[in-house]
Amino acid sequence: MQTYLIHSSDEVLIDREVDQIIKKHHISFVNFHTILPEKSIGIEEVRKIEEILSLKPFGGGKRILLVKRVDKATFEAQNAMLKFLEEPPIDTYVILTTTNLNSLLPTVVSRCQIITGNVAVKSDESQMKKGGEILTKIFFASVGERLLLSQNYSQTKEEAITVLEQLLLFLQQNLYLPSANLTSIDSCELIKKILSAKYYLERNVNVKTTLDILFLGFPKCKIK
Questions:
Q1: Is there a single domain that holds both residue 106 and residue 155?
Q2: What is the pTM of this model?
């Protein structure tokens, strides 16, 4: 995969991961481009990125495009990035960094190989614990029980989104402190599903149907 998403609030860790990718692909400093937003990333910034990618790497080598704090990109800008995230030019590697996966479109996350590190958790530990408890209930539930859980959590859109955010908090913590029964790869896949469901809920898709599809798509496994 040519597109990476580094999820961390630790700049030292981010720099280390970027250095490893540079060394792995033998990138020259003249073919290293950084986009660092001052306030936000909009359509104009995406056009600048596209201009960079339209040019061939210097000396015919490989290159890296680093977009820092991609969570500052507007939804329009994120949508505009999808094409080059999915199909970067030959010999081009795209690296995105974020401290908040919740701010990214699920279509952006799904196109990236996720690298995780320490992330500052703003919510309190009780919300994360609730997310773990809800996840355990879903994993142990039968099909009928999952549909009943979906009904219980879908009384209002706001309640459903709160549940999804609790699940995300737990899974984001599990990304860099994986449990014995839930690997970081498992967490990545679940995060993508939950972000997608949250995206649809925020656009007023039927709450019960969205949670039904989400819960039924969860694997049957155990976590501690």
A1: no
A2: 0.63
